[in-house]
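Lay summary. Proteins are chains of building blocks that fold into shapes, and those shapes determine what they do. In this project we predict the shape from the chain. Here is one chain we studied, written as its sequence of building blocks.
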Amino acid sequence: MQIGIIGAGIAGLTCAYELCRQGHTVDIYETAPFVGGQASTFTVQGSQLERGYHHLFVSDTHIADLMEDLGLSHQLKWFESSVGLYYGGHIWRFSTPMDLLKFKPLPFFDRIRLGIWTLILQRTKTWNKFESVTAQEWIIKHMGIRSYKVIWEPLLRGKFGDYFNKISMTWVWGKIYLRVASRKKNGQKELLGYPIGSFEEIISALSDQILSSGGSINTSTTVEKIISNDDSVTGLKIRDARGTYSTIEYDKVVSTAPSYILPFLAQDLPKEYIDTLNTTNYLSAVLLILVLEKPLSDIYWLNIADRTIPFVGIIEHTNMIDNELYGNKHIVYITNYVTRDSEIYLSEGSELLKTFIPHLKKINTDFEESWIIEYYHHKIDAAQPIVKTNYSNQIPDHITPVNGLYLANTSQIYPEDRGTNYSVRLGKHLADIINE
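And here is the predicted shape, written in a compact code that computers can read:
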């Protein structure tokens, strides 16, 4: 079959890779001038670095299997993680149960209560029981109002903004359950994986396999319309980098774009399906990446539980990956999840840097602006679906009402959260559906 895929992220590339292995001819179309989507990379200090921070958990077997298929298993290395929480002007370590017991902002009884219920969540393998209740309601009832106010509400506000009190407890369960699955079997330390050489190693290997199988990857190319006849897909109308329009026939089409984009491309979708697509809201990720002369902290993942600080997290990449890869410099991601009309989204990188610097000095009182060698500013739209209660009822099917048209994006990964591992799983699953 001739198959067209919209989007060259990990899901689109994996789907194309699997379909090519089955003997199909696949063309990928990507609006951006690069491939990889949210896992795409760029050059920093002579090495590749993700535009948005990425790592793998021990439970991420789908992408580990793909790396083995691609001959990249030797590139995947595992590191002990370090997690912290900034609260009350202090960095508190949050990597082990003992760290929780030392968390003095909560009374001792609340620490015990929080630990017990966290352990229960870690050992709960079913998510359905949490779907109809908000995280706010469940946490207050079980972990207590102080745990919610001190830890969870600031994190939920930072992650989901005005939606913080509408988020399903299933989302929180997924985060906790996933993290315990990534701990050493004989210990308490969490292990995180990273392909040395960046995720570009996987992206390049997938691309090479697709091209060598007769497929094509067309960047800076926009799909203007999904063409159909008698409720069956027949092809794509595209606009290339030169602005030239063309129409290409396809037997099948896969869209990996966010759900709200599909109604603009496919005009034969029934209203009921369009309403389902538009039910899912998204937040965009805004990232400022700093290249520093000195480390900001000794923690890899620092959650900010202080909403007076205008960012939700600091991920210090070189506290996990050897900074020799980046000329002995230190790589720091500062991250936010916001709506596209927010001040942070609309600000230039220089404005964000000016706003953030005084708050970085709260994190490390020794920090000086002179430590900054260079910085990069990235925005990733539709980075985080808003996971409200009873979210499973609003997930659109992969098989759309238009025969031969399929949908595969992060809104359909639930109950797991977005991530490269689940994008690999999604791409493989779509390839199986098409082959069937």
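What the prediction tells us: DSSP finds 13 helices and 20 strands in the chain.
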